[in-house]
Recover the amino acids of this structure.
């Protein structure tokens, strides 16, 4: 594994928010924004105006705080833009929708280089572009005088195209649990970065720029998924949300999960061996890959991109998550993980 090199923004170091001014920065950032297909009125007025073909709007918000959700010495500005967009776009997909637009609020020190902000905008645009979405508005403010951190708030809007939203509360006993996307890669990359290394590049890149399976969300809705969730905090933690909302027990098939997520001699196995970590811990409890998990009626053919990894059970227990019939908490301890997933106020 190799040591990371410092990530330095391009452009004149003296070209800061304070020097260029709020509206000068906004003009530069908007030049990177791209165009949303549904935008009737885009950035530049007091508010954007969007067409809503479905007459319903999916809306979701995430806040990223420097030092907790990203580090500028680990990730480029473009990486951070990609990551901020992906966290929200995946939530829209998890409802069965397709993202249409983003609104972005950013608080930063006046010493922030404008080139860095332009890089964030470019990353946001690149992540949104394939979906036909774009940043259509937002706000830029100075952070507290004693703060050196950046706070990035992103709101995503989406369209259901006539489909019913897929909720967390619809799982039923007998349903098949399925996965789309990959698990454990971002957590593995974070473990590498925390130890001062920057390779294997595949897992570090996965932490810097998640690759959610956006099309799998609408595909699951079309196929009759009964519940769905974005895996942002960890598989066991997020399955717990479905189990609680649906009043069911979700039993993960460990062997099926390993087949789906841990290829023999793959990067997770290699890094786990090097660091003395069971890679299954990253798969079960690592967040920020933004894979999707969903439940489907037992006889429903799974759509493209989905792999079965367990079942939904009823019984006397009102809710909970198991792995091969073992309570999740016991499995977490067995694989050496600190908890079932990310704790926001831990």
């Amino acid at each position: 594994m190799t040591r990371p090199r410092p990530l330095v923004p391009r452009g004149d170091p003296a070209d800061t928010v304070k020097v260029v001014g709020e509206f000068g920065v906004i003009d530069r950032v908007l030049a990177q924004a791209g165009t949303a297909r549904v935008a009737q009125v885009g950035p530049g007025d007091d508010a954007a105006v969007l067409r809503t073909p479905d007459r319903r709007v999916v809306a979701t918000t995430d806040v990223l705080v420097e030092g907790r959700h990203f580090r500028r010495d680990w990730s480029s500005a473009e990486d951070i833009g990609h990551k901020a967009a992906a966290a929200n776009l995946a939530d829209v997909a998890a409802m069965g929708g397709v993202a249409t637009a983003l609104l972005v609020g950013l608080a930063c020190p006046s010493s922030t280089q404008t080139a860095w902000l332009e890089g964030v905008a470019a990353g946001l645009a690149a992540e949104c572009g394939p979906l036909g979405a774009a940043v259509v508005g937002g706000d830029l403010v100075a952070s507290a005088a004693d703060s050196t951190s950046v706070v990035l708030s992103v709101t995503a809007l989406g369209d259901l195209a006539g489909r019913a939203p897929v909720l967390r509360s619809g799982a039923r006993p007998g349903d098949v649990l399925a996965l789309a996307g990959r698990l454990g890669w971002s957590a593995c990359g974070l473990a590498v970065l925390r130890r001062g290394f920057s390779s294997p590049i595949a897992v570090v890149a996965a932490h810097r720029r998640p690759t959610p399976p956006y099309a799998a969300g609408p595909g699951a809705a079309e196929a009759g998924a009964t519940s769905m969730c974005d895996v942002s905090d960890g598989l066991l933690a997020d399955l717990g949300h479905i189990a609680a909302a649906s009043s069911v027990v979700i039993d993960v098939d460990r062997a099926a999960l390993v087949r789906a997520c841990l290829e023999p001699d793959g990067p997770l196995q290699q890094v786990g061996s090097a660091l003395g970590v069971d890679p299954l811990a990253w798969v079960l409890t690592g967040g920020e890959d933004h894979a999707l998990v969903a439940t489907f009626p037992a006889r429903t053919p799974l759509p493209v991109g989905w792999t079965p990894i367990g079942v939904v059970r009823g019984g006397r227990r009102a809710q909970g998550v198991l792995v091969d019939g073992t309570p999740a908490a016991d499995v977490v301890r067995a694989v050496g993980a600190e908890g079932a997933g990310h704790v926001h106020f831990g």
Observations:
- The CA atoms of residues 192 and 198 lie 7 Å apart.
- The mean pLDDT is 91.
- The first helix runs from residue 17 to 20.
